[in-house]
Amino acid sequence: MVVYVEYDVECPCSDGTVLRADVYRPAGQGIYPVLLLRLPYDKSNRHYYKGYLDVPRMVAAGYVVILQDVRGRYASDGTYYPFVYERKDGYEAVEWAAALPYANGKVGMFGMSYHGYTQLAAAAETPPSLYAIAPVMAIADGWVDMVQDETMPFDQGSLATWALESILPDQLKRQDRDKELERAHAYIDELPFRLHDQPIREWAPIKKTVPNSFYFDFVNRQITEQTIQQVDVREKLKHIHIPALFIGGWFDSLLGQTLGAYQQFGGKRMLWIGPWTHSNLDGWAGDVFFEHATSPLGVDQLKDLTDLHIKWFGHWLKDKPLNIEKPVHVYHMGKRRWDGQERWPPNNAGISRYHLNHHENTSLQNSVRTLEKKKPETNQTDQCPRNPAAPFPTRGGNLLMAGHGAGMFEQGDLHEREDALVFTTQPLDIPLEVLGTIAANVWVSSDSPLLDLFLQVSDVTPDGKVYNVVDTFIRRTVDDRGRPRHVQVDLTPTSYRFGKGHAIRLAIAGSNAPRFDVNQNNGTTSRTATGGVPANDILYYGGQYPSSLSIPIR
């Protein structure tokens, strides 16, 4: 099919700002439903034309496809500030698209990550011409992990990577600041190493290029509560009644927010979760490859994600049969196959609980830390040192950070560090099928004003390789130093199979850097300060402190 393309078509906003979009449509006469993507990135990049979705195929299926620069980005006029203008601009863009001479008045929205948020933000304003959305790896609150105080973890690796790589170059180019743009590109080349620079509020790659950047507003939390509430559309989701297709990845950095938005959404909804990272949907998640990750897709054997989108919008914008039986579709890692479910969170067969324990190994003259079904009867403790000068390093998992791959990677050498406590089951007699959210219940104390905990569950293969499956990182204030406190925390949701002969491992450490800011153990973190001092955390288990891992099983 011949595709007709118009570049930088103008969309005038009510305040006089002009947004611009590339419009792809069937050649010749005719009117069609519109599929709209609103993004802050380079819409001419092939990734947005023929990447995770194939725009020519969507046009061939009978749609006008519009890729629009958001306010203040690339061809659009105005000033960019993350997330702030997307609700009103989104409403106006939808109604503009619906009124185009080749549009039939029905609009759907699609896109991933930031442009997942632009869909939810527009939908929160209930534009009458918006009939369906398809948020992929999306967020409903763009600042949820970025504008909290130092008593909460600060995901500085993600923010720094996004601000420097994705936002800064166009910002400088628009201002004709060639010297600073050249400097920014040099910083981008150094970014994986620059993520360790402290303190974050003095971060040179931004400070020496755009010292008044929104980046420092986030770091210093210099944003009004009114603005924060405007950006957060989570509560509004329950009042949205158009249908939504939510798509997430087991190793996506935004999986928790995607699932949260799905669960709060008030309209008809469908959920798909694949073995994907935020930047890779071809089946590779770190060092592990998952067959049939995108083709054929699901138990219905769809061709790919483009086929899924065409079917979804065909149902809601063209009244075609959907022909997809289940409302929830998850890729079961371990079995390397798709499963259909009736709901999320799933109905599980039960919980398998493993208690933390250790045994003295007299032959090796050391302790062996274990995970066991039986709770130890006596109180036991382990000391976990935390040194801000040498924090426990980030490797794999759900992240989006320069120089650090997301997904599953071998962890064995990290688990040998003295600042990691590692507990492992015996090899499993039968496979353990996991679906849902693994939870940890631990008793800990700290001599630091802030307690940081990184918890990671891994799969230990029969040949001794160790691959991360899920993890989490939390921070708590310490009111009574040295006194045990109970911490209950959920790790990342998953669908995974620990095979026969494999073992389950829990690793506990006191940091996860450079993804998160580093606790200086004096009431501050690397977000604002340096020069920290070592501290010790104490882990308690057994007896009156039944620290354990709870695993939801099929």
From TrEMBL:
Per UniProt, residues of the Xaa-Pro dipeptidyl-peptidase C-terminal domain are 310-550
Q: Kindly name one Pfam family recorded for this protein.
A: Peptidase_S15
MF annotations from Gene Ontology: dipeptidyl-peptidase activity
| This protein's UniProt keywords | Hydrolase
On whether Nucleotidyltransferase is a keyword of this UniProt record, the answer is no
Q: Which SUPFAM superfamilies match?
A: alpha/beta-Hydrolases (SSF53474), Galactose-binding domain-like (SSF49785)
Q: Which NCBIfam families does this entry report, sorted A to Z?
A: CocE_NonD
Q: What is this protein called?
A: CocE/NonD family hydrolase
